[in-house]
Amino acid sequence: MAVTPVRVGLVGLGNSGWYYHAEQNLVPARAAGQLDLVAVCDADPARAATAADRFGARAHTDWRELVAGSAGDDGGVELVVVALPHHLHRDVVIGALRAGRHVHVEKPMATSVADADAMLSAARAAGRQLSVHQQRRWEPDFQQVLRLVHEGAVGPVRRVEVHRSHAGRYRTAGDGTPHTGSDIATWTEEADTGGGAGWLIGPHPVDQVLQLLGTPTAVTGTAHRPPGSAVEDHLRIHLAFGQRDGGSSARIDVHRRAEHPAPRFRVVGERGDITSEDGTSVVVRDADGAVVVVHDGLEPPGRLGAELYASLAASLRGGPPVAVTGEQGRDVVDVLERALRAAR
Ligand SMILES: NC(=O)c1ccc[n+]([C@@H]2O[C@H](COP(=O)([O-])OP(=O)(O)OC[C@H]3O[C@@H](n4cnc5c(N)ncnc54)[C@H](O)[C@@H]3O)[C@@H](O)[C@H]2O)c1
Predict the structure, then answer these.
(1) Transmembrane stretches, by residue range (predicted)?
(2) Which atom of ligand 1 is nearest to the CA of 105?
(3) Mutation probe of ligand 1 site: the residue of 10, 16, 109, 182 with most atoms within 8 A of C-beta
(4) Residue 167: its pLDDT value, please?
(5) Domain check: are 41 and 88 in the same one?
(6) pLDDT tens track for 293-312
(7) Which residues contact 274 (CB under 8 A, 6 or more apart)?
(8) 155 and 101 share a domain?
(9) How much distance in Å is there from the Cα of 7 to the middle of ligand 1?
(10) Residue 22 lies in domain
(11) Whose CA is nearest to atom 17 of ligand 1?
(12) Is 42 in the pocket of ligand 1 (CB under 6 A)?
């Protein structure tokens, strides 16, 4: 039986909204009959109009207009995708939920647990679904690492190390490509708009570590804030995970300066270790350091999202629960808030 595509409204048409959501996911999902991008919104009228033309959707400059009206079969939006600067997530997510829409919000869901909890309460009160765009959970090397850890390939995990860097300042979208604009996205360099390496880069590796090791029992952090800067350009997060089998820990480094070589993932287990240097291969060594398995030829981590969007579309049409829930997004916010507080 043919399934009606989920009607989507996209709020925020910058790097993420325009490219990572519309171009890379919503256009293919429309072709696949999963989702239909019917409305777009950006505070910049020219951007909204150009996007509406390109994506065959109606244009808005105020998100309240996009969520107004009925969510029924008359073309109203069922799912709102929020791809706005961090400090704007809360009000738009809660407003859309209260208007009866499901919401898929970019990472980090919020920049405080209090805001994340307010969003979750609004979703429960409205009986609507709230999910978070943690699409990097599907990075090919991470999927291998996750499978190997869960299969016990190196025994109980002692330590996990993750490095992630986005070198340079955060640029706005350019013509045809993300992050190539002539302007700096100033909200990423200010504290009260949720800027800094922690909130910008941290959600992906934090989500991955929580997938690997579960709920941490302790979180702390240290940061480097360059002189004259309002926000950190490096955050190191330390997580502890209980005392079972002697306990395990994780260290996550996110930074705005590439550091080479820094393996993307390293998992040290009781009986060996697992390493992904650059994302194209995952190597398992035994406790003596001998290579026992190599998974190579992996697709380097790209922009991703197809798996998450497929899960999202299915979940809204009676399929299994969405792969990244609002509760999981809240757990990521909790870790980052605690690490950043400790690093102050
Ligand atoms: N998941 C990922 O891999 C990934 C990658 C990049 C960005 N992001 C996330 O996406 C979100 C947005 O980041 P970005 O890089 O696209 O930012 P951006 O600065 O490139 O774009 C933000 C857009 O929002 C618009 N805007 C601002 N205020 C608005 C309002 N009140 N109403 C409507 N539109 C408004 C701006 O005009 C701009 O077009 C952030 O949460 C960021 O962390 C996620």
Answers:
(1) none
(2) 41
(3) 16
(4) 84
(5) yes
(6) 999 999 888 779 999 999 99
(7) 145, 148, 149, 153, 154, 265, 266, 267, 282, 283, 284, 285
(8) no
(9) 21
(10) 6-135+304-324
(11) 14
(12) yes
Amino acid at 337: E
Ligand 1 proximity of 231 Cβ (cutoff 6 Å)? no
**Is residue 42 domain-shared with residue 168, that is, in the same domain?**
no
Angle between helices 326-342 and 113-126 (to 10 degrees): 170
Query: Residue 228: which residues within 8 A CB-CB, separation 6 or more?
Result: none
Residue nearest to atom 38 of ligand 1 (CA): 14
Residue 45 maps to which CATH number? 3.40.50.720
Encoded tokens for 19: 């490219």
Q: Are residues 155 and 285 in the same domain?
A: yes
| Domain presence at residue 332 | no
Residue for token pair 């079972």: 244
Residues 178 and 212 in one domain: yes
pLDDT tens digit string along 80-108? 999 999 999 999 999 999 999 999 999 99
Residue 259 covered by a domain: yes
Domain count for the chain, please give it. 2
User: Which CATH number goes with the domain that contains 287?
Assistant: 3.30.360.10
Question: Are residues 210 and 119 located together in one domain of the fold?
Answer: no
* CB 61 less than 6 A from any atom of ligand 1: no
42 C-alpha to center of ligand 1: Å?
10
Q: What is the DSSP string of 284-320?
A: EEETTS-EEEEE-SPPPP----HHHHHHHHHHTTTSS
15 close to ligand 1 (CB < 6 Angstrom) = yes
Judge whether 36 lies within some domain.
yes
- Does residue 119 sit in the same domain as residue 145? no
Which residue matches tokens 């309002």? 230
Are 102 and 173 members of one domain? no
Best probe residue, ligand 1, of 84, 172, 206, 309 (max atoms within 8 Å of C-beta): 84
Give residue-wise pLDDT tens across range 36-77.
999 999 999 999 999 999 999 999 999 999 999 877 666 689
